Amino acid sequence: MNIVLIADTRKYDLLVNFCIAYNQILEKHRLISLFNISRSIRENTDLTVETLATDISAGIEQLASKATYNEIDAVIYLRDTLLGTYDQPNSLLKSCDANSIPYATNVASAELLVLAIDRGDLDWRELLR
């Protein structure tokens, strides 16, 4: 599975800790992230992460494009509810909704998503590619 791992700046540590906790599951999949968070994940885990070398806004657009063409299977995007941009439309989440790509925006739903991937509940996504 192609799993996107991103987070708003204040949630970087939470995402890194999530990756540490679920390392054994995540290492079986292709992981994609943006530059800063990708570096943090690699420095703190033994996970291999494909990096999109871009800022968050351009990265969101790139990932939305990948979602449109079913090049990603799941998104973990830990969002900061205190950001002023929190309520603004997000092209990545809209593209996931339009293409039936599951996503998690908090650590509780991220745990559910990763455990579902591990059980094989989302294997049907591979048929779309």
Helix-and-strand structural type? alpha/beta
Q: What is the count of helical runs? A: 7
CATH architecture annotation: 3-Layer(aba) Sandwich
Give the amount of beta strand, in percent.
15-25%
Uncertain segments are: none
The CATH superfamily bears the name Methylglyoxal synthase-like domain
Count of domains: 1
Determine the fraction of residues in helical runs and give it as a percent range.
40-55%
What's the CATH C level?
A: Alpha Beta
Count of individual beta strands: 5
Taking the sheet with the most strands, its summary is: 5 strands, parallel
Q: Classify the fold: give the CATH topology.
A: Rossmann fold
**Overall average residue pLDDT:** 92
Structure explained in plain terms:
The protein is of the alpha/beta class. The protein has one domain (2-128): Methylglyoxal synthase-like domain (Rossmann fold, 3-Layer(aba) Sandwich). Helix content is 48%, strand content 17%. The protein has 7 helices and 5 strands, in the order E-H-H-E-H-E-H-E-H-E-H-H. A 5-stranded parallel sheet has the order 3-2-1-4-5, sandwiched between helices. Helix 5 links the parallel strand 4 (74-78) and strand 5. The longest helix has 13 residues, at 56-68. The chain is globular and about 35 Å long. The model has no long low-confidence stretch (mean pLDDT 92).
